[in-house]
UniProtKB/TrEMBL annotation:
Ranges for domain HTH tetR-type: 21-81
Residue spans binding DNA: 44-63
Domain of life: Bacteria
Pfam family, one: TetR_C_43
Organism (species): Actinosynnema mirum (strain ATCC 29888 / DSM 43827 / JCM 3225 / NBRC 14064 / NCIMB 13271 / NRRL B-12336 / IMRU 3971 / 101)
Keyword DNA-binding: yes
One annotated GO molecular function: transcription cis-regulatory region binding
InterPro entries: Homeodomain-like_sf, HTH-type_TetR-like_transc_reg, HTH_TetR, Tet_transcr_reg_TetR-rel_C_sf, TetR_SbtR-like_C
Keywords: DNA-binding, Transcription, Transcription regulation
Region described as Disordered: spans on this chain: 1-21, 193-213
Protein name stated in the entry: Transcriptional regulator, TetR family
């Protein structure tokens, strides 16, 4: 009996694809670790390859260039250190405390991986979609915190994005938790009225959970 040629080709492709996925993950993880070791200047791709246990040619084949490695490393870091904070916050019973958990946890994660985060920011490799997904997950927390009077009604989810960007800045400072407390106080009820947000795509309690037209 003669095996079908296309079946044999497919069975050969599957292991190669599995190997590529494993190598992709190993290289991204190695890059996260390597940025922590090398500091702001970041690692060479040869260093990342050695740490991942692959040849540098494999790194170029899977990622194209250093920016590709940096982007994958940041996305892995974000998925494993920042996104789970939202899941933990949503599982709790206090939405205001949950929002503080997310922002404070993000500050500490940014501080722990300062070189990686700063390199990704300076290279403009932090994708807007990454932040948008996180903000979408935070929308219910914000609306519930506003309903309970824990957060001012005129705050929109996009404001939390700005808060996270400010958190990224203060994560490099020794008094980052003090600075974060000052930022957080701006979300409490009773402050001056806020200007209308520009191009807001996320709802708030003030508009009934419906984004502006």
């Amino acid at each position: 009996m003669v095996a079908r040629a296309d079946g044999g080709a497919a069975s050969a492709v599957r292991p190669r694809r599995a190997d590529a996925r494993r190598n992709h993950d190993r290289i991204a993880r190695a890059a996260v670790e390597a940025f922590g070791r090398r500091g702001p200047e970041g690692p060479r791709l040869e260093d990342v390859a050695a740490l991942a246990g692959v040849g540098v040619a494999t790194v170029y084949r899977l990622f194209g260039d250093r920016d590709g490695v940096l982007r994958a490393a940041f996305e892995l870091f974000f998925a494993e250190r920042v996104t789970p904070l939202v899941l933990e916050a949503r599982a709790g019973s206090d939405p205001g405390a949950g929002l503080r958990l997310v922002v404070a946890g993000a500050v500490e994660a940014f501080a722990d991986h300062r070189s990686l985060v700063v390199a990704a920011k300076h290279a403009a490799l932090i994708e807007p979609e990454t932040l948008d997904r996180l903000l979408g997950e935070m929308a219910d927390l914000l609306l519930e915190a506003q309903r309970l009077g824990q957060v001012r009604d005129d705050v929109v989810v996009g404001d939390l994005g700005g808060l996270l960007m400010m958190a990224l800045a203060v994560s490099q400072l020794p008094d980052r938790l003090r600075n974060l407390a000052l930022l957080w106080d701006g979300l409490r009820p009773g402050g001056s009225a806020l200007p209308t947000p520009e191009g807001c795509r996320h709802p708030s309690a003030a508009d009934g959970g419906v984004p502006p037209a």
